[in-house]
Amino acid sequence: MKVWGYFRSSAAFRVRIALALKGLEPEQAFIHLRKGEQRAPDYLAKNPLGLVPTLEDGGATITQSLAICEYLDETHKGAPFLPADPVGRARVRALAYSIACDIHPINNLRVLLYLLKVLKIEKAAHDAWYRHWIAVGFEALEKMLADGKAGKFCHGDAPTLADICLVPQVFNAKRFYSDAELAAYPRLMAIFANCLAHPAFAKALPENQPDFDPAP
After folding, report:
1. 59, exposed or middle or buried, with CB in 10 Å at 0-12, 13-18, 19+?
2. In the chain, pLDDT over 70 holds for what percent of residues?
3. By the 8 A CB rule, do 34 and 59 touch?
4. Which single residue of 83, 111, 113, 204 has CA 20 to 30 Å from 126?
5. CA-to-CA distance for 6 and 30, rounded, in angstroms?
6. Nearest CA to 99 among 70, 138, 132, 72?
7. Distance (Å, whole) CA 23 – CA 17
């Protein structure tokens, strides 16, 4: 098994968490997104969108972080990423997709760079764009987590796909929001803190990756 990622990518972060939760140690390869390595022809042959992560396992090449996470869940033992009951699975997927489909795509690196470098918007407007969509998304997540089904984690007291998506998104938001501002989402931040206390999530943190670069 081999995985291509980038320490700061939220999507690659999700897969690192999933791998750690399953106790897997794949070979790692690194694609530096800010240097444009994702546009190299040999990488585009693996992942035509030029995104990370990409997973190779045997003869299979799998892209898209949630597809990879579900593949890992279906092919490896360990605590499942989705609940056993259909309603629970739907709830966890709704939380995960709210992050991976509605919040993250409009705030990821290629969108933010397009705003700055192609549309030439001012940095203040760029930051306002990011903060607006985080606020919209986090306000919704906070309400979704108020349904009584969350515990230490987004769904009960064990990590699920929802937590795998939540932690990278909060971690990313902390680059633009202060802790005091994020305190407006107490349920979300309590779950985030519980996740960080879990060794699999700690192992997956950006600063714990071989390609970590403290430069902005």
Report:
1. exposed
2. 100
3. no
4. 204
5. 6
6. 138
7. 10
Residue by residue, what is the 3-state secondary structure of 120-166?
A: CCCHHHHHHHHHHHHHHHHHHHHHHCCCCCECCCCCECCCCHHHHHH
Contacts for 11 with CB less than 8 Å, ≥ 6 apart: 51, 52, 53, 64, 65, 100, 104, 108, 168
Give the integer Cα–Cα distance in Å for 9 and 133.
18
Sequence-separated contacts (24+) of 80-86 with Cβ below 8 Å: 81/18, 81/21, 81/159, 81/160, 81/161, 81/164, 82/160, 82/161, 83/155, 83/156, 83/160
Full set of structural domains in the chain with CATH: 2-79 (3.40.30.10), 86-201 (1.20.1050.10)
Q: What's the pTM?
A: 0.96
Query: What pLDDT band is residue 215 in, cutting at 50, 70 and 90?
Result: confident
